[in-house]
């Protein structure tokens, strides 16, 4: 691991086998590698998040496609499958957040 490599470099320096300039250069190289690995890790995590969002969008689309053609009354099961969260913005405005990131706003009439 990087911490082990850093430890070994410090140990070599302490033993007099690695001068300060070489130690600094090696540690800078090690830090650059760590930075690149962290960047790659963030990219991979972002891709996983995107994959999860795409799956949620597909599921939402399938739920809508397989749902009834028209609704004559409130369908609690369908609502639960589609709506992840309801956010009250103001006394007259609410937002429905669907699974997959879709969102729409409704204005309530008094």
Architecture overview:
With 110 residues, this protein is of the alpha+beta class. The protein folds into 2 domains: 1-66; 69-110, no CATH class. Helices cover 61% and strands 17% of the residues. It contains 3 helices and 3 strands. The protein has helices at 2-14, 20-66, 76-82, and strands spanning 83-90, 93-98, 103-107. It has a 3-stranded antiparallel β-sheet. The mean pLDDT is 89.
Notable traits:
2 domains; 110 residues; three-stranded antiparallel β-sheet; 61% helix; alpha+beta; 3 helices; 17% strand
Write the SSE topology.
Blueprint lengths: L1 H13 L5 H47 L9 H7 E8 L2 E6 L4 E5 L3
Helix pairs in contact: 1-2
Number of strands: 3
Order of helices and strands: HHHEEE
Describe the biggest sheet?
Answer: 3 strands, antiparallel
**Structural class, from helix and strand content?**
alpha+beta
Assign a percent range to the helix content: 55-70%
Taking pLDDT < 50 over at least 5 consecutive residues as the criterion, the unreliable ranges are: none
Strand order of the largest sheet: 1-2-3
If helices are DSSP runs of H or I spanning 4 or more residues, what is the number of helices?
3
| Structural domain tally | 2
Shape: elongated
Distance between the ends = 63 Å
User: For the residues shown, what is the average pLDDT?
Assistant: 89
Beta-strand residue fraction: 15-25%
Alpha-carbon Rg, integer: 27 Å
